[in-house]
Design a protein that fits this description.
five-stranded antiparallel sheet
């Protein structure tokens, strides 16, 4: 009686754990084609009454028609190679709702090496798949922007001190490919004196971020260029706490400002010479000379 009680308690705990994880267990007799064991979570996954008869025909109708051939082929390969099964596929509930299911299991075989029983675990992974689809959609849109801009877009892990992402447009900014920059790191693309200044500015900006004062910074510096040797760039970055890794990341853009720097330098030279002229020839003296000439 004590053993039966302990087994019942263990079964109840397992059942609760499976329900919490949206997982259900079932066992198929492959000789008779009948379902010998089914956990109640299976009915909730399929959104069907618990008195529903589940057989091969029901499963065929349940699995999405586009995925059913894939599932059949996968099971045949698993039986032939004596491997455990692990596959994801879509199902269509009676009300037309579409769900994603993760199916894992193992076949057992008789003395003639024919499959006689299948024990499997099903889990509803619809939320995860929807999340993956949203991420993929975001990445597609992000790459569309990144591939059609002259600015380099990047993500840098400040804890591991490495690039996590570099857009292909870095080729326009530096002459180097994204793979070369990611592999080479900051020192590959930034001269030592510029890198020292950048790290000073970044460290101060990161401390402000940690203290909640500011989450972004801008910095101009010289950068290596494969064809031009050196080019002037402007970096704009915003900090982010990665909730999965716990690391601080900088997400930013790097823009070639060489032409802007040339114009700025020309303006500085013009202002310099203007100031020299005004210092050497005071405005009052110049006006007096103009008035004298007019009188003459």
């Amino acid at each position: 009686i004590l053993i039966e009680s302990e087994l019942k308690d263990t079964e109840d705990k397992l059942s609760k754990a499976l329900n919490y994880a949206n997982m259900g267990v079932w066992g198929w007799n492959l000789k008779t084609g009948s379902l010998e064991y089914v956990h109640d979570e299976i009915y909730r996954l399929f959104e069907i009454p618990e008195n529903t008869v589940i057989d091969g025909g029901f499963i065929k109708d349940l699995i999405h028609p586009e995925d059913y051939p894939k599932v059949q082929e996968y099971d045949s390969q698993a039986i032939e190679n004596r491997k455990k099964t692990e596959i994801e596929y879509r199902i269509k509930c009676p009300d037309g709702k579409e769900k994603w299911i993760s199916a894992k299991g193992v076949f057992s075989y008789d003395e003639d090496n024919s499959p006689e029983f299948y024990l499997g675990i099903l889990q509803d992974i619809t939320k995860r798949k929807r999340h993956e689809e949203l991420i993929q959609d975001y990445n597609d849109k992000y790459n569309l922007v990144a591939n059609h801009t002259s600015d380099a877009i990047w993500i840098y892990d400040l804890n591991d001190d490495k690039f996590l992402y570099m857009s292909p447009s870095i080729l326009q900014v530096s002459g180097f490919t994204s793979e070369q920059v990611i592999d080479g790191g900051l020192s590959f693309i930034i001269p030592e004196d510029s890198l020292v200044k950048l790290k000073e500015v970044e460290t101060a900006a990161r401390n402000n971020f940690i203290m909640g004062k500011s989450d972004s910074f801008t910095f101009q510096f010289e950068q290596y260029h494969k064809e031009k040797n050196i080019t002037h760039v402007e970096l704009k970055a915003r900090y982010n706490n990665n909730e999965y890794t716990g690391h601080i990341e900088a997400i930013g853009i790097t823009r070639d400002i060489s032409n802007r720097k040339i114009i700025e330098d020309q303006l500085k030279q013009q202002n310099y010479f203007t100031n020299i002229v005004l210092e050497k020839f005071p405005i009052g003296f110049a006006l007096n000379e103009i008035d004298t000439n007019n009188v003459t």
